[in-house]
Amino acid sequence: MTFKTLLIAALAAWSAAAHADNTDGKSLFAKNCAACHQPTGRGIPGAFPALAGNAFVQGLPADVATVLLKGRGGMPDFSGSLDDGEIAQVLTYVRSSWGNGAAPVTEQDVGSTRSALGVAPASHSRFGNKH
Questions:
Q1: What is the distance between the alpha carbons of residues 34 and 18, in angstroms, rounded to a whole number?
Q2: Which residue, among 28, 21, 126, 27, has the nearest Cα to 68 in the 3D structure?
C-alpha cells in the first residue's frame, strides 16, 4: 500500500467517524435537548419534563415526532434545523435511554408525520429553529 493510498484511506475513515459522531442520536440530543431535559433525561422539575420513564416519550412515534416538528408548551420546534433522519435518531436515543424501552423511530415515521402536519422540510439553516 502506498503512502498516498494509506493517507486517502485514513482521511476517509476519519471523515466517516467525524460525521457519525456529529449525527448520532446521543450527540444530537446533547446539542439540542440536554440543556433543558438534562443529559440524564431527568429534566428540571417544574420547568422541563423528564424524558426518563416518560410514558408519552415511549408512546406512538407520530405523537413524539409531532412534538419535535411543531413544538409544545415552551418547547420550540426543530422542524427547520433537524431533518427527518436526525429527528428519528434523537427520538430513538431518547426512547431507548435511561430505562426507556420503546421501539426505534424511523426516518419514514418522521417523514410521514411531517407530511401529515404540512411542515416544510428542514433547511439546516442556523436560523432553522425558533430558539
A1: 21
A2: 28
CB-based contact 62:109 (threshold 8 Å): yes
**How many Cβ atoms sit within 10 Å of the Cβ of residue 69?**
22
Instruction: Tell me which residue of 107, 76, 75 sits closest to 90, measured CA to CA.
Output: 107
Which is nearest to 50 in space by CA: 60, 59, 38? 38
CATH class of 25-117: mainly alpha
Instruction: Give the pLDDT confidence of 11-22 residue by residue, as tens digits.
Output: 444 444 444 444
Whole-model pTM over 0.85: no
Given a cut of 70, is residue 131 above it in pLDDT?
A: no
Other Cβ atoms within 10 Å of 12 Cβ, number? 10
The closest alpha carbon to 105, from 118, 92, 120, belongs to 92
Q: What is the pLDDT of residues 51-91, one digit of tens each?
A: 999 999 999 999 999 999 999 998 999 999 999 999 999 99
Q: Rounded to whole angstroms, how far apart are CA atoms 74 and 77?
A: 10
The residues spanned by each domain of the chain are 25-117
